[in-house]
């Protein structure tokens, strides 16, 4: 496993993010009922719950060198002040089942602990139709 570095995804990374999303069409289909669309990366960067401030959302990338290995959609103070919400953690198809999901989540925990001091709880939701893929993974991470 290569070392991962976590940083905010920016406009320059949109193509890499779109490629990651398209690498695992099954995930998007299980969530939405449809294959990935061509602007899914843009949507992921923009979408946030109504009423949540723009700067309370961050999309982080876990990079091995220049390669985007995993993406995390993270909300600060949602649904309450002391909670951070993981909207998505997705590992590139070519890199799944090698420990990158676990490592990415460890980096996310460290990010939250060091930059968002008021956060006491990490929260997420698993969509029913994706439960077989996601539940075991999140239980292994302590959820
Ligand atoms: C879910 C996902 C993020 C896991 O990432 P990954 O890199 O494949 O997982 P890892 O190799 O880091 O696995 C970490 C641990 O979880 C366990 N695990 C992973 N998937 C599992 C499953 N379906 N059932 C039981 N355990 C599972 C692994 O065995 C491993 O255990 P270990 O640490 O004891 O060895 C990845 O499969 C993915 O991106 N899926 C598509 C998107 C998605 O469904 N995301 C989650 C919803 S937000």
Element order, helices and strands? Answer: EHHHEEEHEH
Helical element count?
5
Unreliable spans = none
The name of the CATH superfamily reads Gcn5-related N-acetyltransferase (GNAT)
Q: What is the CATH architecture term?
A: 3-Layer(aba) Sandwich
Range of helix content: 25-40%
The overall strand count is 5
What binds here, in terms of ligands, is: coenzyme A
**Proportion of strand residues:** 15-25%
Cα separation of the termini: 24 Å
Describe what is shown at a glance.
With 143 residues, this protein is an alpha+beta fold. Helices cover 36% and strands 24% of the residues. Strands 1-2-3-4-5 form a five-stranded mixed β-sheet, sandwiched between helices.
